[in-house]
Structures are given as C-alpha cells and as structure tokens.
Amino acid sequence: MDHKSSSFSFRGVHLNLNHCRRASSVLGRDIVRFNYDFVSVNDPYIFDSSVFEFSSTFRKFFHPYNPLAGFIIANSNFKVFPIYVERYIIALEIGFQEENFVIISIYCPPSKDLKEDIDELKKLLLDLGDKNILILGDFNAKSRVWGPRDGDHRGDLVLEMAEQFDLLIANKNDSNLSFNGPQGISWIDILLIKNINIERIQNWTIEDKITLSDHQKMVFDIVPQNTNPLKSARTKKWTIDHINILSFKIHLTEFVKNYCAEGKTLEESIDEIQNALYKMCVINCKSKSRVRADAVWWTPDLEINRSRVRALRRRFQRTAYDEERLIRKLKFKKEMAEYTQSIAIAKVKSFRSFLNSVLKVNSFDTFYSLVQDSVNNYGQLCPIKNQDGSTTGSFRDSMLTILEYHFPRDCGTIIRRQTDLEYRFPLVTVHEIGKIFQDINLTKAPGPDGLCANIIYEFFKVNKEKFTNMMNECINYTIFPVSWKQASVALIPKVGIGLDFGVYWHKSHVWLYCAKRMVNKQEHGNKIYGVTLKEVD
C-alpha cells in the first residue's frame, strides 16, 4: 500500500487508544480507509512489550519497552528520522517535498506530575530551535482555550509553556469532546504548533465516529505554504464576529497584564501590540460551520407547499381502506402536480431576475469587479491631467498622481511643527477616545494587519489609560509607526469621470482615522496648532 499526499497536503491524526486491542484494530482499518499519512498514538495496546494490531506495511516508531506514546507512518514518501524516543514522549523529523517537520507525540497520565513531562518537553523544544514543530498529545489538562469548561492547574502549566515557546494552540474551544468515559467527559487532547502558519492547519476537527476507545480522533490537514506574493499580501478582515470573543478576552487580559514596554521605543511597543492582537485573533478564530443553504429560487411559499404535499402523502399511505385510500391518493397527486409546477415557475422567475440584474445601466459596480479580479486585470483607469498640463501614460502613473492628490506631502514644515507640538499640544482624554470609537463604524476600514476597529476597541476597554497615553505620545511627537502608513487604498470613481484628481475618492485607514479625529478636534479648538494629517505623515 502506498499513501500519496497530493500537492504537498497531508493528513495527521491523534488518538488515545486506552490500551484497547479492538480500538487498535479499528484505527488500523481507518488508516487505510481514510488515507491518513501519520498517526500519533497514546496508550496503545501492548503484547509482550510491543505494539500490535497494525499492518506490517506501516512504519511504527515506539519505545521498545511498554511505550505510552508513538507514531505510525503510513505515507511511504515520508523521510523519517527519530530524534527523541522515550516511553512517554517521542519526536520524529519527517521530510516531504523539500520541507521538514518535527512531530512530537506525548502522553501525560493523570496520575503523574505534569510538571515533569512539561519540563522534558521544554528541553526538547530548546534543542529543536526554529524547526517546524507539531505537538500532539493527551495532556489530561483542562482550559477554556481548548474546551468549554473551566481550566485547572495542569491547563495553566500547558498555557505557560505555550506562551514561553510561542506555541499556537490549534484546538477550538467549541469542538466535540475528546474524552467520554466512566470518569466523565472532557477536552484533553491538544495540537500545538510552532513556526507554522496557523492557516496551514485546515479541517481540524474532533470526530464523533466510533473508535472503541474512550477518546475520539483528532484529525487535521497540513496544506502548502502560500508562496504567491499577490495572494499572500491579502489579509483576512478580523472583527469580533470572526473570533471566539470570550477566549479572545481571556488572552487579551492576560497579555495586557504581563506586557512590559520598558526599554522599548513607542514604535516597537505599538508593533508588538499589533502583532499580539493579530496572533490572538488567529488563535481564537471561529471554525467555519458548513451550513446548507437553500437554492436561490426557493421561497417561503414553496416551503409551505412542500410541507402540505408531504402531509397528504403520509395521510394516504397510512389509510387502510382501499376506497378512502384512493380518494386521498388522488388529492395527493393533484397537490403534487401543482407543487411541481410552482417549482418550475419559481426557477424561471429567478433566472429572469438574474438576467435583469446582469444588464446594468449604471457601471458603478465596475470597481468592485476590478477588486475581485485584481490579480491579472487592472481595469480601465483613465489618464489623469497633471498640474503642468500633461496627462499620465500608464496605470501606475495615474494611481500615484491620484494618491499624491489625496495624500500630499509637506516635508518642509514637519520639523518646525514637531517642535511646537512637543510642548504645546493638549492631551486627549479617555472620554474623548471613547467618543471617537462610538462615532466610527467598528467593522469597517481594517488596517494592513486586518484588525478592524472593534478589535482595537477591545484593547482600549481592557486598558484605557495605556491606549490613551499611547495615542497622545503619537500626536505630541508626530510619531506614526511605519505599519500604520501601509494601506491598500481603494480609489472609487465618481459619476461622470473626467481628467481631474477629484473624480476619485478613497477609504481611510482606521488607525489614521482615529488620529485624524484627534488632530482635527484640536485644530478647530486651537487655531495656533495648524497641523493636519498630511503633515503628520
């Protein structure tokens, strides 16, 4: 048997077999049936100090005496090198298509002190350095980060290790339970990754299939790293609707409590906070549930008619007397014919409505089609007249000319303005920052890292004084981090396009918008401070 992973994507599994022979047999069949590439096994069935019930075509890596953790490699294309082999923990380096991973399987029995196993794992992580690492194991530890129930001391130890070594937890706290036995139910099987983009872990799930063990299988796919520069530049839009807000607030509160900006510049501090917020969004991202949608032509009236037809069918089918059964069958057939005809009419109406929507007189949606297909299509951006009377000759020249019009630079007066502002610019209060957040749409205009204003607002609510002081320092010293100036500007043409600059309007960056509101407030109230946002850049 030869397992082959297509396009570098391969599937991993973790399961605690609870030293059950029949569970081992079921897992062996599932490896063949579902084409698993490698399986992390905890507490396997052992006979004569060896692991049994798996095909001889699989490569098995276990400690030679009564192992409690190990791996089964079913993909023959993997190049495997054992790094560390002990009863409770085993580490392998696997190579596939010019990329190497270190996979670690660990089992931490509930009767054993978890700190000993964690210390052993920490030593191994220090030795591995910057390699791509996946850790799969039954830690017998609880936390709201990977389960819906309250955590315990063992869970705190795992979280402390994850924070120390910058490990990402791939588990979702709303997943199926991973343990269901006589002792109760729990979520104790965990996948941690290091130096691997969390977006490469796809289709992560705790299955509810029968395993004949008191644990359930944890299954996931590892997909290729995105190497397309155009596609990788696009960032996911992060709002509180996309994340598990409770878990996010727990991580955020813990970060703010432990964060120290001593010895760091303002720009370094802001970059670290932004990166931390982005990582917290990734860790607490909601899993997409597959919801079956109705057809575009389906209507509530069809729903009612379908229910009526099904009721008539059940009524005539359960009728015992032939004469009454015939009458009810005829009534059902009549209603069924009318229902079928109404479906055909609904499909025709829906298709005609679609055709009418395609033929638009107003071409305002051309911009959105341009954005959707922006990889190889630059649209029809017309030439723009420069100040000297000449016109632009390329798409890039037109774009730069429009950007220079909306975001002009006045470098000659920046230094003088900064000197004035350092001593005389009034401070903005916490209440005023809160009013700015109330006035803006918290789900629009994400920054280059994809963070929308409601994510930033959560950070503001956790530590209002810190956020306000940070913004005041930025305004007082006209310090705006480089990351705030990186934005994908949307240039949207107005009706009646000409050759002037003003025929295009733009969408602002949320961080700069917040700063702009602060500066404009001071402009209108204090005329002597003639600084505008264009000069701050």
The CATH superfamily label of the largest domain reads Endonuclease/exonuclease/phosphatase
Oligomer: single chain
CATH top level label of the largest domain: Alpha Beta
Helix-and-strand structural type: alpha+beta
Q: How is the CATH topology of the largest domain named?
A: Deoxyribonuclease I, Chain A
Strand order of the largest sheet: 5-6-2-1-16-15
Proportion of residues in helical segments:
40-55%
Cα end-to-end separation = 62 Å
Strand content: 15-25%
Largest sheet: 6 strands, mixed
Low confidence ranges: 227-234, 370-379, 410-423, 525-537
What's the gyration radius in Å? 31 Å
Number of strands: 18
What CATH architecture of the largest domain would you give?
Answer: 4-Layer Sandwich
Organism: Araneus ventricosus
GO molecular function, one term: catalytic activity
Protein name: Endonuclease/exonuclease/phosphatase domain-containing protein
InterPro entries: Endo/exonu/phosph_ase_sf (IPR036691), Endo/exonuclease/phosphatase (IPR005135)
The gist of it:
The protein has 537 residues and is of the alpha+beta class.
Q: Can you put this structure into words, describing what you see?
A:
By secondary structure, this protein is an alpha+beta fold. It has helices at about 20-35, 115-130, 155-165, 230, 245-260, 265-285, 300-315, 320-360, 365-370, 395-405, 415-425, 430-440, 455-460, 465-475, 480-485, 510-525, 535, and strands at about 10-15, 40, 45, 50, 60, 70-75, 80-85, 90-95, 100-105, 135-140, 170, 180, 185, 190-195, 200-205, 220, 490-495, 505. The strands form five sheets. It has a six-stranded mixed sheet, with no helix packed on it. The chain has a six-stranded mixed sheet with strand order 7-8-9-10-14-11, with helices on one face. Helix 2 (about 115-130) packs parallel to helix 3 (about 155-165) and helix 13 crosses helix 14. The protein is globular, with a radius of gyration of 31 Å. The model is unreliable at about 225-235, about 370-380, about 410-425 and about 525-535 (pLDDT under 50). It comes from Araneus ventricosus (Orbweaver spider).
